[in-house]
């Protein structure tokens, strides 16, 4: 039986979502370790990679269960009782064998949360604090990312990808209480792409963003901190 898992997680203390040979301290590594305790040695495939410190409110994965595991409600309860409190299985359902968490995904939605403040220890792992912000400029410049572009200047060096072209369907900023939220929806994202786009919005001007997007000139940027980034939804 192939199953789709929707989960949320606090990525603060994990080395990202992907399984790693050197450590099990990842989201997928932790899940696979718990599954082994239940006699399930299936590999988990996630919709996409989230970096160290990045969170998710609705990551989607798939796995193939052995025949003797048929009660998905029981499995969900067992997993949630055994997983650390930083990971929660929100939904577990049977899907067709043609379903693939990564390749069947049509759109991915991310949010980046910013707060203009000195910072506090209770939000430090979940919000990026800044001293000041020109919200109107952010609101205008984020629109530049919409559409189909070559994001070669907005991906981490050494990325293993055949193409750096992606299409962003939605990119906008809004205020929610004391927070500023940056919303991005695309057919896919390159490694560290969103954090580099956020860095561009916070650090450089409109013309410089245009130059980077057109690949006419690369402006050196350090990715925005990972703690403000959330994988919010995967659309199929």
Task: Record the SSE blueprint.
Layout: E1 2-9, H1 27-37, E2 45-46, E3 55-64, H2 72-82, E4 87-95, E5 107-116, E6 128-130, H3 135-141, E7 147-150, E8 165-176, E9 179-186, H4 193-203, H5 206-213, E10 229-235
Structure in words:
With 236 residues, the chain is an alpha+beta fold. It folds into two domains: 2-95, Alpha-Beta Plaits; 107-235, Alpha-Beta Plaits, CATH 3.30.70. The chain contains five helices and ten strands, in the order βαββαβββαβββααβ. It has helices spanning 27-37, 72-82, 135-141, 193-203, 206-213, and strands at 2-9, 45-46, 55-64, 87-95, 107-116, 128-130, 147-150, 165-176, 179-186, 229-235. Strands 1, 2, 3, 4, 5, 6, 7, 8, 9 and 10 form a ten-stranded mixed β-sheet that branches. β2 and β3 form a beta hairpin. The model has no long low-confidence stretch (mean pLDDT 95).
Provide the descriptors you would attach to this structure in a database record.
236 residues; alpha+beta; Alpha-Beta Plaits; 2 domains; ten-stranded mixed β-sheet; 5 helices; 10 strands; globular
The tally of helices reads: 5
Main sheet characteristics: 10 strands, mixed
Beta-strand percentage? Answer: 25-35%
Low-confidence stretches: none
Encode the helix/strand succession as letters: EHEEHEEEHEEEHHE
Mean pLDDT: 95
CATH T-level fold name of the largest domain: Alpha-Beta Plaits
Percent helix = 10-25%
The CATH architecture assignment of the largest domain turns out to be 2-Layer Sandwich
Tell me the overall shape. globular
């Amino acid at each position: 039986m192939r199953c789709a898992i929707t989960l949320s997680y606090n990525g603060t203390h994990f080395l990202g979502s992907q399984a790693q040979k050197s450590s099990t301290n990842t989201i997928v590594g932790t899940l696979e370790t718990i599954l082994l305790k239940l006699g399930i040695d299936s590999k988990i495939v996630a919709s996409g990679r989230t970096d160290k410190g990045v969170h998710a409110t609705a990551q989607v994965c798939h796995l193939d269960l052995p025949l003797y595991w048929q009660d998905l409600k029981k499995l969900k309860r067992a997993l949630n009782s055994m997983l650390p409190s930083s990971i929660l299985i929100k939904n577990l359902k049977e899907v067709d064998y043609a379903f693939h968490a990564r390749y069947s995904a049509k759109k991915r939605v991310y949010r980046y949360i910013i707060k203009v403040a000195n910072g506090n220890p209770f939000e430090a792992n979940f919000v990026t604090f800044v001293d000041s912000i020109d919200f109107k400029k952010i609101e205008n410049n984020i629109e530049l990312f919409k559409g189909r572009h070559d994001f070669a200047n907005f991906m981490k060096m050494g990325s293993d990808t055949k193409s750096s072209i992606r299409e962003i369907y939605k990119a906008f900023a809004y205020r929610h209480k004391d927070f500023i939220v940056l919303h991005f929806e695309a057919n896919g994202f390159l490694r560290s792409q969103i954090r580099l786009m956020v860095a561009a919005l916070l650090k450089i001007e409109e013309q410089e963003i245009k130059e980077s997007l057109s690949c006419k000139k690369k402006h050196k940027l350090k990715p925005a901190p990972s703690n403000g980034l959330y994988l919010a939804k995967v659309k199929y």
